[in-house]
User: Fold this.
Amino acid sequence: MSKIVLTGSSGLLGGAFQAILSDIDLTHLNRDRLNTANEQTLIESIRSSRPDVIINCAAATNVEGAEQNPGDDAAANTRLPGVLAQACKDADALLVHFSSTGCYGDWKTDPYVETDEPQPTTVHHRNKIDGETAIARSGCRHVIVRTGWLYGGAPALAKNFVWKRLLEARDKTDMTSDASQRGNPTYVGSLARQVMKIIDSGETGIFNVVAHGVASRFEYVSAIVEAAGLSCKVSPGPAFARLAKVSPNEGAVNVRLQALGIDIMPVWNESLTMYVQGLLQSQAWQALGNEATERASSDR
Assistant:
């Protein structure tokens, strides 16, 4: 490939692609240029970039908010993918788009595979499936990645789940976490590398791309605290009340990747441990330790 257009580069997933594509001719389409109110202008803008691949990391991710403002969610998760797909069709480019394992719904207890029928239970996941449908109808070459429970990035990211749990566990002796919902905690750096391997393979269609192994939220949070060596005790708790009826089972298996022999995703807790260790060595964590030391000294 010679030219990639990346949307949503300021987000968690977009940042992971920027990190591994530093030597690629990369064009960024930021939020202010992704206005679906004028679809033709957006298509012309993309066409003028002459991309070989568009990696669409732009998305609305507020599952709860989608129940109250479905139109905003649909603009990002249904209409935008459709416009990007049409632009890719016109430019004979490949579209890589990210969907969710939550789209499978709540009708199995085992992890979902790519041939399972999506039966989404929330507005957000219905919009995601509508976006997938719009891409398929466009006739463009595409890779649709169903993933979920993503983590990674710098501590300062607003939605850094792991960092927030570390801060919580650092200041508490006990905490609880949902033992009922299950999924695949997946590091965004691993996801980005796997997607590039799919692109290089020339394969198209729908792929589950998640870390190996399914965990409950309780097991996920427990692993974060354990990897950090914190003394906080994590106990299993009930599901918290939600406006969106999210499926308790968002687990999946990378069946297509395995069949093609290109599955390089790690086991979920191994990559999580490495990420947590990196956070503990970050300046942000070290600064917290220095603040605690200064407070202890001033109290003497």
Q: What stands out?
A: The domain at 4-151+186-212+248-266 is CATH 3.40.50.720 (Rossmann fold). The chain has a mean pLDDT of 93. DSSP finds eleven helices and twelve strands in the chain.
